[in-house]
Specification:
Three copies of one chain form a homotrimer.
Chain A: H1 3-21, E1 35-41, H2 60-68, E2 70-76, H3 82-91, H4 122-128, E3 132-138, E4 156-160, H5 169-181, E5 195-197, E6 200-202, H6 208-225, E7 230-235, H7 247-250, H8 259-284, E8 291-297, H9 321-324, E9 325-331, E10 340-347, H10 351-358, H11 375-380, E11 389-395, E12 400-406, E13 409-413, E14 421-424, H12 440-454, H13 466-474, H14 480-483
Parallel strand pairs in A: 1-7, 1-8, 2-10, 3-4, 3-7
Antiparallel strand pairs in A: 2-9, 4-5, 5-6, 8-9, 11-12, 12-13, 13-14
């Protein structure tokens, strides 16, 4: 898109938005819709931020925002690991419903797979509604033109298309060039490849997290020059492996002895510094008051790679709380009263309808979203979905782990040949007391809801590695007749046939 | 839809229809296209109506219509059980071709599955052609907005979306309220849930069959006030289980000693009474002469639940005649001469093209229908499809039962490890004399046609219960190489490869 | 389509083309885009033409064209057997990507399966660009209206829809009529059925190859009367079985003693005679200079049916060179200098983009083609795809044969439990020296490319026979985790999870 077209396009979008809003003045009249920033950390554990009382990691900038905003203690990612979690976030639907239960294949670099275009992203809806939209950082939802951020709702994209990246440019550039010289072409490990800006290769000069933060501030400055509100998706790959931090950042944590944890802490600290720069830029450009910042992680932390999910059980990938309950806050000076803790369920799936509501657009197509607009409930500190469940499911080798959470309770199936358990995860976040014997009817109802949900799943469109696909077929997955069987619980009406 | 819009919409439809018909007078000029009523019974056996010589059940109103119309003795449902039978009826195509070979999942109450919108229903085509359309009773083709009768061609819907219902409102309301009080929410057995009118819950005050009949008469009266022809789909759930009849109706059958049969008989009697009310209303409103009534059952009767398919072998679910050959008549005073018996094949799949022909619309899209317009053949009492086959297939645990009927003959595969048999079901409806040795070439040809047909099947989009899906995959279904193998019969050209 | 409409349509197309071309004069101004003729042989072996030094078969007319044009020595069909090869040719994409890896079912005569309409054919693009388009001969891509040549880009179709045909009309007519008299209807072996012209049955009076040649000359004469360029797809079924040649043609090969080879040679000779007639007609109508003729075979020869692929290993169906490397030449007096040999890779997949370039149209839709426009490279005798691979894969019983060719090298997996091998097929076309030990990194890279390619495959939409479908499911195909495993080769980055 050349610049002329871009400007024209922007004017048209503004006009469209003004029509949508019923504005009768100039198309350049002030637009009071808030800016929206999503800051997503990668594999950040529940206990790895100051505002969640980390015993060893400090995140001063995040903490200030959390303190001045509302901190969510029961926030959930859309999935317990990366690709599907992001697919769910952007599409506003459980990734299982559109065959995206698995990460894209490792060897997909030019493989042409990605989230189907039928699954509209909220970025596209915000863009259509006149927002200036940008993605900085990690994508992981497909690389071919049709899946590329620039064709999926982002005016600006600076980052990398795959699932992760090395952090030190002097290092990854060198390895990339060596492999290229060996003629490896597209089979070079993608964590080493150059970053891009709207499809054009760029040269990174800083530690990657700092580079992304710098780009984010530049995006905000650029957005300031327009009269449009903006949406920024600042998608850090930190503190995802590879574990690589600067000496300076690690030096902030002299009390940490464990080598991995020390690097991890340094990585988080760099991310936090970036958040500080973002806030600074918002203030400098006068956009601080009317910008909603939503911070969270794409899934739980991974202890062997430095993360800590205490007091939650489990880790990234699990349907235990540690797998997909994540640190989160909403910060918006103009509307959200600070110093609050929001104890009710928030799902990453809720961001789609919530942002649409803020942008004053209705999803025109009859797209059935799985989340709810949580903004009114958050502003009132009420449960946004009383009596409504959220779900998690991760397929394993021949079986599936499942979680169904409703209000304070959670039905859990975890592990091969496991039995269904029930926890009051509001009061017992560590999932230590199984209440299945105490509330069998509730458990049965939750499991039944999970089964109903499972009927809406589509066959996986891909697997992370070919072996998983073979196993899926050989073991006649998804075997939901086993997943959702509860011994000894009578099913009302089950014997009727039609 | 508010009323104003509805009226506008109706006028537009009338105008569209007049353009379609090439009418040059007022758009309110008389429309001589017939009204169409489909009265569908649920699980009604071949021998359970007077006009098919039931030894114990009387159906005086149905019998009069059958007598004054044409009685079909070889009429077939589109499938041997409910959901697929109705899907085939509405879509005019074998349900196997669009992945709807199974009933929707039991636990689908809010599950969001249903017959894909790409499968246009004839109700939509009639509606588009200016017909005023109504569904009274059972749906069973999906509940979400996109699958709902009001979005699938019906201006009016009064009934229930699922596969069946209890009959006594005082009883089902009580049980529903009790379960609701227990907090069961949407997991309440759907046979107990309130009925609805165009999406709004209604309170039923009569025995359900009578309620549906009353609603049908009201629809006809309402339709009378328009100048449009109407299409009414009166979709009784009777005499499907649960077996519940009024004492008065059962008292009509003092000679029946078997408890179940007695209730069943009472249920059929109530249905018959409703048919009488419908006819009465047609006469009263002057629409009797130009209304085509098609009566039939969605599949064969179920003897353990009171049904009787004599002299046919087998029952609901089977590819034996008792599974899907059903009682049927066409009644239309203005065009159809009474007192006739039509011995040729009629399939529920034929209704789509036949009704379109009566409504003088051509299916614009290149929708390939599986039935034929049988109206001219019925009026002439000729075979509507000489030399053309109809098919039935029901998947079982690791194999499939199949029927292929052409003219007088039927190839049958029934039972695990069964061999193909051939019957002259015209002269031997009880399928007692296997003619496979006598007419091996004919059998081979029929089986070959079945195989060709099977290549057009789609993978099932759902299963009734998860276990069926697991079995399907584990047993590598559909295993059609076994289904369509005939030992010792040479296949011309089979060895050529391309 | 009636004639009036056809003429109007043609004028509209010409106008559209002129707009497209930016022409500002009369719509009937000269169009200097070349005519295009594809002459496709069926199962013709690499060594079965004079220009590839056949020791026993003479093809004087083909040889003259090859001599005056450019002869390709590394030309590949899109697949190693018929249906998918043609699907790939027409769609410009590997048939695996749209579920067409198998031939259409044998018993599909009225089965309604075919290549999905979403897969645009280049014939449609040429037609839309104002070309007069014709198919003479074999189709094999579906029979129902939506798949029929006349709905897939061909103004004219004279031939048969299935995968092959008998050659002597007096013989096939007789057998057809006999079977029809037996009431076999549509189960009559399709090799015997009447040919058609745009949907209407025609009576063939000559040996089939001659008939097709005659029709081709008539098409060219008809095209000459228009001002449009034309595209002719002359799709001979010769020398595919059944082995049937005229005595006169066989008499040309007194030196051949083997019965089958003699018939086969006669069949090829008849085809060559047809090519001569085509050239004659081009000359006579003054279109010889500006017509591009591309000649090739849809896959390798089948020695048990008379073919010879020397010096290549393997035969039709194999991923060995003999399976899909085929004789090919491009002939175009106006642009291509004669007497050349082109040693670089050309794939049948390249024809789509190459022809589009010649017709000066851009594929409007974002259709991702798998081939490249080879015209500039051929005119310059340069490698059209340096460093880019082409692929072949054939599924067998529980495993897959694969070939990945890039530049001079080819990675090969052939046979059950085989190991990956590497050949320099430019210098060692017989695949005699395995270089896998010598160039392990190259082999690994090729295999990795194959794996990436495999992720883009779709589940087969059909199988040639039902048994293949059962095997596919029972053996949990495609088992690509086995296909693309190379023992002992480390995968960079393989252990990272996201």
């Amino acid at each position: 898109m050349n610049n002329f077209f871009k400007i024209k396009n922007r004017m048209l979008k503004a006009m469209a938005a003004s029509v949508l809003l019923g504005a009768c003045g100039s198309v350049f009249s002030a637009d009071d819709r808030p800016n929206i920033i999503v800051i997503l950390a990668d594999d950040l554990g529940y206990a790895d931020v100051g505002f969640n009382n980390s015993p060893d990691i400090k995140t001063p900038n995040l903490d200030v925002l959390a303190e001045k905003g509302v901190k969510m203690t029961s926030a959930y990612a859309a999935h317990a690991f990366c690709g599907p979690s992001r697919a769910g976030l952007m599409a506003g639907r459980y990734p299982h419903k559109f065959g995206s239960q698995y990460n894209l294949p490792t060897s997909n670099l030019s493989g042409g797979l990605g989230i189907p275009a039928e699954e509209t992203y909220f970025s596209t809806e915000l863009q259509n509604a006149g927002y200036f939209t940008g993605l900085i950082g990690k994508w992981h939802l497909g690389e071919k033109a049709e899946f590329h951020p620039n064709n999926r709702g982002f005016d600006e994209f600076y980052g990398f298309l795959n699932g992760g990246h090395h952090y030190f440019p002097q290092d990854f550039e060198k390895r990339y060039n060596e492999q290229k010289a060996r003629g490896m072409n597209h089979t070079i490990f993608h964590y080493l490849r150059p970053l891009e800006h709207n499809g054009k290769e760029v040269k990174v000069t800083q530690y990657l997290t700092d580079e992304l933060s710098t780009q984010a501030t530049q995006f905000i400055e650029k957005a300031d020059k327009d009269n449009d509100p903006f949406f920024l998706f600042l998608s850090y790959n930190a503190p995802h492996t590879p574990l690589e931090a600067t000496e300076e950042d690690m030096a902030q944590f002299p009390h940490i002895k464990d080598k991995k944890r020390k690097i991890y802490a340094g990585m988080v600290y760099a991310l936090d510094r970036g958040v500080g720069q973002v806030v600074e830029t918002l203030k400098k450009t006068g956009q601080y008051e009317n910008t909603l910042i939503v911070f969270f992680s794409d899934n739980g932390g991974k202890p062997p790679a430095g993360g800590n999910n205490a007091p939650l059980r489990g880790r990234k990938g699990d349907t235990l709380e540690g797998g997909f309950r994540v640190p989160m806050f909403f910060h918006w000076p103009e509307k959200i009263k600070g110093g609050q803790t929001y104890p009710h369920i928030v799902s990453a799936l809720d961001l789609y309808p919530s942002f649409l509501s803020l942008a004053k657009v209705e999803s025109k197509k009859a797209k059935k979203l799985d989340g709810v607009n949580v903004m009114p409930a958050i502003l009132a500190n009420k449960n946004a979905r009383p009596g409504q469940s959220i779900f998690a499911m991760r397929h394993r080798y021949g079986y599936s782990d499942v979680a169904i959470r409703k209000d304070n309770y959670k039905a859990l199936l975890f592990g091969k040949n496991a039995k269904w358990a029930l926890y009051d995860v509001h009061n017992d976040p560590a999932e230590s007391k199984d209440l299945s014997k105490k509330h069998p009817v509730l458990l049965r109802e939750l499991v039944e809801e999970g089964e109903i949900w499972s009927w809406q799943h589509a066959e996986p469109k891909w697997f992370h590695i070919p072996k998983e696909g073979f196993d899926w077929r050989e073991l006649s997955m998804p075997r939901f007749h086993e997943t959702f069987s509860i011994d000894g619980v009578e099913q009302d009406g089950g014997s009727v046939t039609h």
